[in-house]
Amino acid sequence: MQDGKSSGFGDSLRRIVVIRTGNFIGDVVITTPVLDALRQHYPEAFISLVADMPGAALMENHPSLDEVIVYRQADRYRTNRMRTTLKEHWDTFRRIRAGAFDSAFVLHPQERAALLGRFSAAPLRVGFSRGGYNDSVYRSIYSLVIPWPEDDCGRNQSDRLLDAVRAIGLTTPPPRLSLAVNPEAFQSILPLVQRLRHPRVALHTGPKGQSKSWTVEGWREVVKHLREAWNASVIFVGSEREQASVQDVIPNALAGVYSAAGGWTLKETAALLSCVDVFVGVDSGPLHVAAAVGCPTVMLSGPTDARRWNPVGGCHLAVRAQPFPCPCCDCKKEGPLPCMEAISAESVIAAVNQLLKQSEDSPLRSLSYDWTRERNSATPRTPGRRRNKAPQL
Predict the structure, then answer these.
(1) How far apart are CA 19 and CA 106, in angstroms?
(2) How far from chain centre, in Å, is Cα 249?
(3) What angle do CA 137, 139, 141 make, to 5 degrees?
(4) What is the DSSP string of 208-220?
(5) Residue 393 lies in a domain
(6) Of the candidates 152, 151, 125, which has an alpha carbon nearest to the alpha carbon of residue 139?
(7) Alpha-carbon distance 118 to 189, whole Å?
(8) Do residues 352 and 333 make contact, with C-beta atoms less than 8 angstroms apart?
(9) What is the DSSP string of 188-238?
(10) Plot region of 209 (φ>0 → left; ψ -120 to 50 → alpha; else → beta)
(11) Is 366 exposed, middle or buried (0-12, 13-18, 19+ CB in 10 A)?
(12) Looking at the chain, which terminus has fewer C-beta neighbours within 10 angstroms, N or C?
């Protein structure tokens, strides 16, 4: 890997575009350490992010960004969309070219993202290559090529992405995810937040019957413990397609248990997660969103390697079945997997108890905060600010 800054590449960047394509929300959120590192080293630069929806929507208020360019993929599940999609793609290409960027950092080792970087016409183009038959293509596109080996010895993905800025000679602190809460979204969720007593725990089951799904019985045990041992407010979060799995866990109304699955936008979910004490869920977008807005997390780790995908920066625990029932790692099998079903409710409860005890003992919990100023402010809170608690009614 070449040292780009020592070669003069990174000395005076003024217009920077960061490209992270893909539909997965978490893949966009884990790029935030790169954005923060670039902003730290180039405080006066114009920094733009190219990303797909829905993750792009979360980045609109990010303090390290000046612009978000939405790049929409063709929707394979709908028909008669190709003409509109091609127009959207062409509009995105034109916006990238019109940006007159002097540098492009492509954070996805994939051909489509590489072509966007090439289309930027930036003199400095930094990107990753998996090697193999496409390696020559990447080397013809990028000024600096960073290897992306499949055998990464369990390196966290956020740390691997920081290699893009290290390649031009920048020093980086340990990675930490960051997001800014949208003020309008926060206002919309405030009435619910004010009704929730502490501790507040958010749960994310994921879609029903998927490879990362945990057992209904396990989720019920966690809910029961939170209500009986902590008298906690429990909030299920997720998309519309995850309503069925939430319904399986809580088929009947329970005191102190709420469901926000399917009824809230992604921005509203992020705002809610900034107000809870602990998040518990599978490896998914909401897990990384929760970490990025300052919420301690418990990740249920099965088919994905927790060393690679557990959030970085802050109090984030991963629970895995012991002993692990199968030798696979990052496997692509469909349906509920033995490695998820073998996770015991006791191990998840122990992790939740640990984080709740830390939250209970933290002096930050007793700090007062002027929510009126937050609600009336046009500027979202910065990611470095620890989440604060809404007043009790």
Answers:
(1) 5
(2) 25
(3) 75
(4) TT-TT---HHHHH
(5) no
(6) 125
(7) 41
(8) no
(9) HHHHHHHHPPSSEEEEE--STT-TT---HHHHHHHHHHHHHHH--EEEE--
(10) left
(11) exposed
(12) C
Cβ 293 vs Cβ 381: under 8 Å: no
Give a yes or no: residue 385 inside a domain. no
Asked whether the CA dihedral 161, 307, 337, 229 is positive or negative, the reply is negative
- Long-range own/partner contacts, residues 149-155 (CB < 8 A, 24 or more apart): 152/308, 154/305, 154/307, 154/308, 155/307, 155/308
Residue type, 77: Y
Residues 253 and 366 placed together within one structural domain of the fold? yes
* Structure-derived torsion over alpha carbons of residues 225, 228, 230, 234, reported in degrees to the nearest 10: 70
Residues 220 and 295 in one domain: yes
Regarding whether 338 and 271 lie in a shared domain, the answer is yes
**Range of 101's domain?**
15-166
Q: Cα–Cα–Cα angle for 250, 251, 252, nearest 5°? A: 90
DSSP summary character for residue 46: E
Nearest to 344 by CA among 316, 322, 318, 317: 322
Whether residue 6 lies inside any domain: the answer is no
**pLDDT, one tens digit for every residue, the chain (393 residues):** 444 444 455 568 999 999 998 878 999 999 999 999 999 999 999 999 999 888 899 999 899 999 999 887 545 334 444 454 677 778 888 899 999 999 999 998 888 888 888 889 999 999 998 877 677 888 888 889 998 877 776 788 999 999 999 999 999 989 999 999 999 999 999 988 988 989 999 999 988 767 788 999 999 999 999 999 999 999 999 988 888 889 889 988 788 999 988 888 999 999 999 999 999 999 999 999 999 999 999 999 888 888 888 888 888 999 988 766 565 555 556 667 778 888 999 999 999 999 999 877 654 433 322 332 332 333 333 433 333 332 222
